[in-house]
Amino acid sequence: MTSVWQPTAPCTPERCAAGTGPAAGAARAVLRLTAGLAVVAAGILFAPVAALLGAPLRHRLTGRWARAVLRAFGVRVSVVGVPPGHPAPHPPAGPAELVVANHISWLDIPLVAAVLPGRMLAKSEVRRWPLLGAAAARGGTLFVERDRLRTLPATVAAISAALRDGSRVVVFPEGSTWCGRRQGRFRPAAFQAALDAGAAVRPVRLSYGPTGAAAFVGDDPLALSLWRVATAARLTAEIRLLPPLLPGPRTDRRSLARSAQLAVERLSANRPSPSVHQCDNSSPAAASSVRTPS
């Protein structure tokens, strides 16, 4: 049973996964799906080894693995907001930060990890998934019991401790996936962890085109979503890095959450044109700048 406080979205697969655009051939789709699952499996296999490495090397390997996942599924990626003159899609290493992004798809995880690798906050059900759960736990994933409100303070404390230790923590504060055409409210709990740790908050805007191909909402089966992504002919993903928010001494978690949400919403309504750095891609067309529709 779903908790009355657990965030939910009105998006459904029937309404939001429609209009997926041109489709790739069946043979190419099967090849993409096979390659994508093989790269994911390789990540699971080597997760215990990666857990033994230092954070900088582990993050570099995580970023490369995440980009390989996206490339295998045929997803073209553009990164917007990289500091001028920086040659790679990763921003320079800095102090710990809480990365907050809107949530559309399972693709959000490798998309953010490709640019801002860090410790993810995931629902506790993921820990019980075969293979993936163990790999996520070894990779430093933090888990939240979404249906048990009394465990929330402990989760906030764990996020705060990770930030104090210098880790980057990635959170999807809507608490549920939305189709990308609409956005949910940013829940304030994780922002309290940033305040407690004195860490900056970096809002991030994720978008896909065509939106329906990437959307993974409601009771959409994962297998169907994987196939929809694999069959999309020209699926693009865009990640836009916004300037970090530096909380002041009088900032509270609700105002901080609202500021981050407004920054992401404002970007959706009025999209600036800073420099764009392309990630490597399986298609030669990825060498040029890709604009992803909202």
Would you give an account of this structure?
- The structure is a single chain.
- The radius of gyration is 18 Å and the shape is globular.
- Helix 2 packs antiparallel against helix 3 (55-72), helix 2 (26-50) crosses helix 5 (132-138) and helix 3 crosses helix 4.
- Helix content is 39%, strand content 14%.
- With 294 residues, it is of the alpha/beta class.
- The protein has helices at 13-16, 26-50, 55-72, 108-115, 132-138, 152-164, 189-197, 211-214, 222-231, 253-269; strands at residues 76-80, 97-101, 119-123, 142-144, 169-171, 200-209, 236-241, 276-278.
- The protein has an 8-stranded mixed sheet, with helices on both faces.
- Mean pLDDT is 77; it is low at 1-5, 84-94 and 270-294.
Average pLDDT metric: 77
Largest sheet: number of strands, sense, barrel closure: 8 strands, mixed
* Rg, Å, rounded: 18 Å
Helix content: 25-40%
Tally of helical segments:
10
> Order of strands across the biggest sheet?
4-3-5-2-6-7-1-8
Shape: globular
What is the strand content?
A: 5-15%
Which residues sit in consecutive blocks of at least 5 with pLDDT less than 50? 1-5, 84-94, 270-294
Structural class: alpha/beta
Counting copies of identical and different chains, the oligomeric state is single chain
Quick overview of this protein structure:
The protein is of the alpha/beta class.
